[in-house]
Amino acid sequence: MNPRRSFLQKLGLSIALPSILGMKIKSKPPNFDFSLPDPEFWFQVRETFPLTKNRVYFNNGTFGPAPFPVLEKVEAINQLVSTTGEYGNTDQERIAIAEFLNCQTEELSLTHNTTEGINIMAWGLPLKAGDEVILTTHDHAGNALPWLNRAKLDGIILKAFSPANTQEENLDLVKSLCGPRTKVIAIPHITCTTGLVFPIREISDYARSKGIYTAIDGAHGAGTFNLNLHELGCDFYAGCFHKWLLGPSGTGFLYVKKEKLNELQALQIGGYSDLGWDMLSSPPILKGYVDTAHRFDYGTQSKSLYAGVKAAADFHTAIGKQKVEDRLRTLNQRLYEQMKDLGTSFEILSPEEPQSRLPMITFRSPSIPAEELNRKISKNGFRVRQIHEAGLNAIRVSTHIYNSEEEIDQFVQLLQKL
Q1: How many domains are contained in the chain?
Q2: In a domain, 387, yes or no
Q3: Helices marked H in 320-367 — which ranges?
Q4: 3-class DSSP state for residue 238?
Q5: Is residue 21 in a domain?
Q6: 3-class secondary-structure state, position 103
Q7: For residue 337, what are the CA distances in angstroms to 330, 356, 379, 394, 409?
Q8: Which pTM was predicted?
Q9: pLDDT tens column, 264-294
């Protein structure tokens, strides 16, 4: 028997690709052996991913490759739907995802990506010309563009600040920017540029005391932290499942705190958003919106994709959400410390404070342009991301649970050679 097939079967997994040919599909989470020493435990986790061994993937901040249980679940539901013609709904998946994110099902809208959720926040909040929204100079296009568009069309005022290096400094910085016209704090939970973590709970507490909305870009939140949206305390939180949760592309979410539901106007609606409608009355009427965040998502959704999200959540739960977060922090700290040992050869742009950094390290070379450095790194078998945002012209390394200490060591050795 093929050794890899044997190893996967021990974990309770089938092989994804042969199922296309009609083989029986298993889609349950793997049975991890927690008695193994750390290196062996994380090796068995790595073996549940179809990632090529020909290069090292250090770009999870852009896209997280799905493990076999997720791929198999998506495929199984696709086959079921195409076999029966019954595409069902996402009600059960919504319940499971809400439980994973620690919020109520009624507070969760299922979207296609983070940007969609941010657009719902940016356009649904009751803002008028002259109202101020706080952002950062390190925002991803997905957070910046919706707010820039609203400013362009409705005359709201955007105030962007450059993040500091510690959580305490950033809390003080946000407070100093708030004034009588501040209506929204719309910052990332983790910046896409340097992996800087904002103290969202403390910022949310302060904003609440001032009557300011918190609308958080959580693209890097689900699957990194042992995320608890209720404890985080923000009003709104938009995220996705195709990055750190390792789910299918085209899946995301918007959390709307129950108490704020009717303060966020639904501008685009469809089937399942409503309490009823009548085209035969004169004039035709909409009777109202459903009393949940489901009003923000509507029409036919992909049963298979959200079944894949649930499988990804089950995968994380099988390992342990806190264990996943601890692993991300361990790898991140190892890379940071080894990069620091390189001295002045490279400038580290990510914060030194551990609680202000996860799960990325961003750096640049004083002597090699970022584009050239990215090319050289790629030629040597590592996939990273070049960072153009905020004019950084730097390289970002983002590691996940399928990466190893050895890969980090090899990467730093490559940088030494370069």
Answers
A1: 1
A2: no
A3: 321-341
A4: strand
A5: no
A6: coil
A7: 11, 15, 24, 18, 11
A8: 0.92
A9: 999 999 999 999 999 999 999 999 999 999 9
